[in-house]
Amino acid sequence: MKEKIKPHKPGKDLKGNPTGGQGRNTKIRFKSLLDIRRYLARTLNNLEVDTIAEGKARVIGYLCSVMRDIIKDSDLEIRVEKLEKAQEVQPNEKKY
Known about the structure:
Strand content: under 5%
Number of strands: 0
Structural class: mainly alpha
């Protein structure tokens, strides 16, 4: 039977070892799919060494999935807008 994980407290990992501070001081920016991949890799590593609860890792995975879709959609929207602007700039041409 798996050992029950205690809730995470700032400044300590789940095993009670000090983490060297009150948590992360820098904000994580998700501007690309690479940023999400790195964050998920870090989350998986933390889950593997029991420094993050399974429930929190599950929520992070779900939210990263949502963020991935948002990034893809916004990238597609930007590309479509550029194509529409390029089409407006060109004079009307005969279509065959």
